[in-house]
Write a structure and sequence with these properties.
Bound molecules: ligand LCS
Radius of gyration: 21 Å
Largest sheet: 7 strands, mixed
Structural class: alpha/beta
Number of strands: 12
CATH superfamily of the largest domain: Type I PLP-dependent aspartate aminotransferase-like (Major domain)
CATH topology of the largest domain: Aspartate Aminotransferase, domain 2
Oligomer: single chain
Distance between the termini: 53 Å
CATH architecture of the largest domain: 3-Layer(aba) Sandwich
Helix content: 25-40%
Strand content: 5-15%
Strand order of the largest sheet: 1-7-6-5-4-2-3
């Protein structure tokens, strides 16, 4: 298996080889907390980093199951290596804690998943990190908010839930010029549609709970980047212990084998649903990066090879109409999270982004009448028919 092979082939094969013990075809789940040493010298050498190998599942590189997943994600993202975590939030926390210290400045997108926003605004600031939330889709604003102590620029693109797009190449260039790191949360697009590392980012984070797993049956997170970057996370990873479980690692490996197929279908369905919504008289506005009405459609076309499966829209009649819509869908599932095979519908203001103060939410476009859909891989006609009948009842 060569790294130059096409994306779908890499989804299926990267990181995997027959198990050396018994020749198992699929990567085994190493359900063990600890690893046996041949002798005391070997144990000491592994802990000293003088010999490669496994020691204890909390300690990098965790286990052969985790290593297979890391290799697969790294190959797909064009990274040297990576590290897995118990959730996407654990991955983002580890990136922040390992790279930032008191007195450093973090410049972040002002539209972020609610818990990422809370981590940056309420927790990092408690430890003396200065944080600015900026409209990172506007490069002038990014430039104007860079400070002498800016150590990291964090982008979520497309952003949850407004689907704002940031120019990864231009922002990473600005970060490099001042010796800062650029980190991209690639959860929405996935490596199938967007690869931030070749565009200049230093590291990519994922909630693998979403498209990587793909089936809404696990929690996980991944960070990929250079060997040097991942090494710089080692002490935080090993001491804070937000370790992905081996079953979750295995489920992510299995999920990734069909990433290319699922993402094509998610995107194709999302375009059909977005067009349906845009033409619907009860819909005020639709945000989908693939629509020409999207404010950063041109940037999306430049840096993405497809537009993903996430849509947000404003419904006429405000929150009450939104509530009726969500209570009347029959095929779509009323639930947070995203990137599952089934279509999920939710209300950001009262659910995923409820921790953000209303005035802050409104300023960045997370309106009370916004509904977010994670379009699944069902037949698009059925998704549209379900939304149509539910909209008729609003
Ligand atoms: N990054 C993005 C872009 C996300 O959407 C999420 C979760 C995370 C990171 C955190 O990942 P987790 O810890 O949940 O694995 N987004 C969610 C959402 O929109 N609904 O529920 C979770």
């Amino acid at each position: 298996m060569k790294k130059e092979m096409k994306f779908g082939t890499l989804c299926v094969h990267a990181g995997e080889a027959p198990d050396p013990s018994y020749g198992a075809h699929t990567t085994p789940i190493y359900q063990t907390s600890t690893f046996v040493f041949e002798n005391a010298e070997q144990g000491a050498a592994r802990f000293a980093g003088e010999e490669e190998g496994y020691t204890y599942m909390r300690i990098m590189p965790n286990s052969p199951t985790h290593a297979a997943l890391v290799e697969k994600v790294a190959v797909l993202e064009g990274a040297e290596t990576g590290q897995t975590f118990s959730s996407g939030m654990a991955a983002i926390t580890a990136v922040a804690l390992s790279q930032l210290e008191k007195g450093d400045h973090l410049l972040s997108s002002n539209v972020l998943y609610g818990s990422t926003y809370s981590l940056f605004s309420s927790i990092l600031t408690k430890y003396g990190v200065e944080v600015s939330f900026v409209d990172t889709s506007d490069l002038e604003q990014v430039k104007n908010h860079i400070k002498k102590n800016t150590k990291m620029i964090f982008l979520e693109t497309p952003a949850n839930p407004t689907l704002i797009i940031c120019d990864i190449a231009e922002t990473s260039k600005m970060a490099k010029e001042i010796g800062a790191l650029s980190i991209v949360d690639n959860t929405f697009a996935t490596s199938y549609f967007q690869r931030a590392l070749p565009l200049g980012a230093d590291a990519v984070v994922h909630s693998s709970t979403k498209y990587i797993g793909g089936h809404a049956d696990l929690l996980g997170g991944v960070v990929v980047g250079s060997k040097e970057f991942i090494k710089s996370m080692e002490s935080i990873v090993n001491t804070t212990g937000a370790t992905m479980g081996p079953l979750e690692a295995w489920l992510c490996i299995r999920g990734l084998k069909t990433l290319h197929l699922r993402m094509e279908k998610h995107a194709c369905n999302a375009m059909a649903v977005a067009q349906f919504l845009e033409a619907h008289p009860k819909i005020e506005w639709v945000r989908y990066p693939g629509l020409t009405s999207h404010p950063q459609h041109e940037i999306a076309k430049k840096q993405m090879s497809g537009f993903g499966g996430m849509i947000s829209f404003g419904i006429k009649g405000g929150i009450e109409a939104g509530r009726k819509l969500m209570n009347n869908v029959a095929l779509c599932t009323l639930a947070v999270s995203l990137g599952a095979v089934d279509t999920l519908i939710q209300h950001p203001a009262s659910m995923t982004h409820a921790t953000i103060a209303r005035e802050v939410r409104l300023k960045v476009g997370i309106t009370d009448n916004m509904v977010r859909i994670s379009v699944g891989v069902e037949d698009s006609e059925d998704i549209i028919a379900d939304l149509d009948q539910a909209l008729a009842l609003t």
